[in-house]
Every structure is written in structure tokens, then in C-alpha cells.
Amino acid sequence: MFEQINEKKEKLDSLRPIPKYTLKSLQEKLLLEWTYNTNAIEGNTLTLNETKVVLEGITIGGKTMREHLEVINHRDAVKYVEEIVQRGEPLSEWQIKNLHRLILKGIDDDYAGVYRDQQVLIAGANHVPPAHFLIKEQMEQCVELARGEALDIHPVERAAILHRIVVGIHPFIDGNGRTSRLLLNLELMKAGFPPIVIKVENRLAYYEALDKAHTAKNDDDFIQFVIKEVKNSLDLYLSVLS
């Protein structure tokens, strides 16, 4: 299942260290596309070019403050992910809450970084998240899995499963998708993979694979979905460096 991406990663590793400005340009490209797509999946109407302008510190007329904050906040959350990777910190609930706090900063400060205190449903999904009083225990189990048993499986599979678990728990009132995609990339980046971009045009396949994982207890489709995106990111890096 992972042979092709393992080969591509080995090739990428053989080309390290990546030249400073080449790496900077790759990171900027992925940050823009990651930010645009993750927000667009959740309904943000800023275009790719508008997202780029907002990242540069310019406001867009006719767009809401929330849409601007979603771009700036996601950029800050990505920086935090990079800091965790650089420090080599193991996953913790504190990190997850901090990522969520950054995502909702200035948008919903009352619930930023705070587990939900009421039941919610996931629009368009058959899966029903657990009751709010079960969240703490299930998130602790998720972190324990990521720091223990899951270390024995391929990092791409581990990243996909972590994402699926957190989305399924739906621990926050809002911002679960963005936070879970940040966690997915956090696990990939810890293992030396470049971050992936789940594109808004693939939103239906993404949601369907996740819902199948939750309802049929079968992760295969979602893992294959993530593998495809990992391959795309590796191919981007290799195309620039080859």
C-alpha cells in the first residue's frame, strides 16, 4: 500500500538538505493552497488569489471579517505546527486545544480551545459524534494511541487514523475539520513528509471516505485518499528538485 510513497520519500530524503530559497518557495506555495482549500471546504468564499492577498496583509472588500480571520488564523496555526515538529514534541491534548484556539481566535473566543459542552451533528454524515461528557476520555485515548500503539504503523496510516478519530469525536463546537487536517499534517511532517492539501474539489470524496470509515469501521478508502495526496505533495517537491 505504501511502497510508492516510500520510494518517493527516500528519493526526496536523498536530495536533502533542500536549498534555502527553494524550500521557502515550496512552503509558501503549500501554505497558500493548504489555507485556501481547508477554509473553502468549510465554506469560506475567498478565492485562491484573494487568500494570497490576505496572507500578505491586505483586506478584501465585500468579504466578512470572519473570512479574513480564518486565513490569518490558519497561517498562525500552521506556524505552530511547524514549531511542534521542530521541537520534536509528542502529541498532547494541550497541543490540539492550542491549534483549535488559534483557528477560532477572534471568531468565537468563548469556545476557542475548549471542548464542546453540548451535542452536535455533522452535516451530511451518517456518523453521530459522542455525547459531550465522553469527549475528554475519548480524546485522552486518541492521544494515548498516537503516542503508543500507533507508532508501530506507517506514519501515513497513523496520520489518517488520527484525523479520522478526531473528526469522529468532533470535540469542538466549530473548527473540527480544520483542526483535524492540521493534526493530519502534523503527523506527516513529524515523519519527514511534506504537508498535503485536501482540495475543495475533492471534498465529496473526502467526506464519503471519512463517513465510511466511521460507519462501516473501514479505514481503507480514507487511507488511500490520504496516500494519493501524499504522493501529490512528494511529486511537487521532486519536480522542483530533480
UniProtKB/TrEMBL annotation:
Domain of life of the organism encoding this protein: Bacteria
Cross-referenced SUPFAM superfamilies: Fic-like (SSF140931)
Protein name stated in the entry: Cell division protein Fic
GO biological process terms, semicolon-separated: cell division
Gene3D superfamilies reported in the protein's UniProt record: Fido-like domain
A Pfam family hit: Fic
Binding of ATP, residues: D174, G175, N176, G177, R178, T179, S180, R181, Y206, Y207
Domain Fido span(s) in chain numbering: 91-228
Annotated site residues (Important for autoinhibition of adenylyltransferase activity) in this chain: E42
Active site, renumbered: H170
Organism phylogeny: Bacteria, Bacillati, Bacillota, Bacilli, Bacillales
Keyword line: ATP-binding, Cell cycle, Cell division, Nucleotide-binding
An MF annotation (GO) of this entry: ATP binding
Keyword ATP-binding on entry: yes
